[in-house]
Amino acid sequence: MTRPRKRVHLAAHFPGVNNTTVWADPRSGSQIDFASFVHLARTAERGTFDFFFLAEGLRLRELKGRIHDLDVVGRPEALTVLSALAAVTDRLGLAGTVNATFNEPYELARRLSTLDHLSEGRAAWNVVTSSDAFTGENFRRGGYLDRADRYRRAGEFVELSRKLWDSWQPDALVADQDSGRFVRTGDVGAFRHQGEQFTVEGRFTLPRGPQRHPVIIQAGDSDEGREFAASAADVIFSRHGTLEDGRAFYADVKRRLARYGREPATLKIMPAATYALGDTEEEAAERAAEIRRLQVGPQTAIAFLEQVWGRDMSAVDPDGPLPDIEPNLADGVSQGRAAHGDRASLAAKWRTIADEKRLTVRELVIEVTGRQTFIGTPESVARQIDEHVQADAADGFILVPHLTPGGLDEFVDRVVPLLRERGVFRTEYTGGTLREHLELT
Q1: Is 27 within a domain?
Q2: Distance CA 246, CA 273 (A)
Q3: Is 396 within the bounds of a domain?
Q4: Is the residue at 326 inside a domain?
Q5: Per the database record, which ranges form the Luciferase-like domain (predicted)?
């Protein structure tokens, strides 16, 4: 029996927390002005995307003790921006990254519930964690959380948040027709929780949201992260964009769901994806190469090298060969970025690639940090996306354009109609909440 064709899910990521945005392009706009957020969100809604996604950092990144000016400086707080976007969009989901290490469940659950009410059921929370003492210096408790404890805290944080969102029973208050007032019929908002990470009790201030719980997104790729996603997440923001890696990741995470009593359809896997379009395959390939050259300029290439080598490499020629210098594994020069893991192995891998392909430093960084997931004509990109989804390499993709705020326009105008022609993408919204868009059961 032939399996029905899967529907493609799409979301839009507002770029800017890394070197994604091509600042040199004259079409590149502000990363702070509200008009930029509105433009990208409305483009995504015009394309009937599932949701709009904001990343966020809690401290300005530093390189060699100085603010790393290739990152965005001054990005507004995510949930505030999303609450404002709720007023200028109608159906688009609104997803924000909020850290579970440096926030408290009651306060954050209240803010997310507020967004869900204001947007009539379109809120989502990308749960991230941190064991970074550098980031923790911004907070009262500092870098107190051991790396091994970050998912234990996050798991209990999500569990407690759901308890708070459920603390109001659907019929806790009913309207009295004679007085016009609400009458209490049950225990309103009462909660009590005692766990390893949190001991709290009181009353939650908001009734259940339109979709009961905001959608939970998770992006961890470690074994602990995959297990956390299988137990608690609705969507995984994955980095596995190739067909082979995507299928392996997809099968691994979906297989874990059964131990938590979940069905595969209850978790959507949506890798980050970029794209480069052209009227011909050759034009698209040339455009992709040019985008990467602009994303990885000389200064960025040296910055990436320093992050892995843990040394000041400012004297290295980015257009010359990789220098014969061993990495400094004891120290690092970059703070506020996700850890590179085993830097010794990574440096050895980079050297092998550089030697085998005779690459300059800049060419090497372009090679190992390549981002264009889909390259081709609109027809071939639509086909590639569909093939990935039908092959169970993904349930859809979170698109990261290289321009702010207009980088999504071409995709919506040229690729989305072709996905609709293939019968795998909606022509209009049929539901009101984000859970309905994602077909979450």
Answers
A1: yes
A2: 12
A3: yes
A4: yes
A5: 25-391
Question: Do 37 and 116 belong to one domain?
Answer: yes
- Return d(Cα 183, Cα 181) in angstroms, integer: 6
Q: Give the Å distances, CA to CA, from 72 to 17, 136, 155, 183, 399.
A: 6, 20, 30, 49, 19
Q: How much is the pLDDT for 392?
A: 97
Taking CA atoms, 318 is separated from 15, 67, 301, 314, 321, in Å, by 25, 21, 7, 9, 8
The confidence band for 23, taking pLDDT boundaries of 50, 70 and 90, is confident
Taking alpha carbons only, the member of 121, 391, 111, 439 closest to residue 242 is 391
pLDDT in tens, 278-325: 999 999 999 999 999 999 999 889 989 998 998 899 999 999 999 999
- 97 marked among binding-site residues: yes
Identify whether 2 is part of a domain.
Answer: no
Q: Which of 318, 346, 368 is the last residue of a domain?
A: 368
151 labelled ligand-binding: yes
144 is in an annotated binding site: no
How far apart are alpha carbons 237 and 216 in whole angstroms? Answer: 11
* pLDDT (tens digit per residue) in 371-426: 668 999 999 999 999 999 999 999 999 999 999 999 999 999 999 999 999 999 99
Burial class (CB in 10 A: 0-12, 13-18, 19+), 4: exposed
Q: Is the dihedral of CA 329, 330, 335, 339 positive or negative?
A: positive
Closest CA to 54 of 295, 382, 404: 404
> Could you tell me if 53 and 108 lie in one domain?
yes
With CA atoms as reference, report the closest residue to 44 among 55, 34, 52, 33.
52
Model confidence band, residue 363 (pLDDT cutoffs 50, 70, 90): very high
Asked whether residue 210 falls in the same domain as residue 341, the answer is: no
* Tokens 């190992």 found at: 368
Domain boundary among 318, 349, 368: 368
Co-location of 270 and 389 in the same domain: yes
Q: What is the pLDDT of residues 56-77, one digit of tens each?
A: 878 777 777 777 766 666 678 9
What's the domain range around 63? 9-145+203-279+372-437
Q: Which residues have CB under 8 Å from 259's CB, separation 6+?
A: 230
Q: Are residues 138 and 219 in the same domain?
A: yes
Region 110-121: what's the mean pLDDT? 97
Q: Are residues 352 and 408 in the same domain?
A: no
The verdict on 317 and 241 lying in the same domain is no
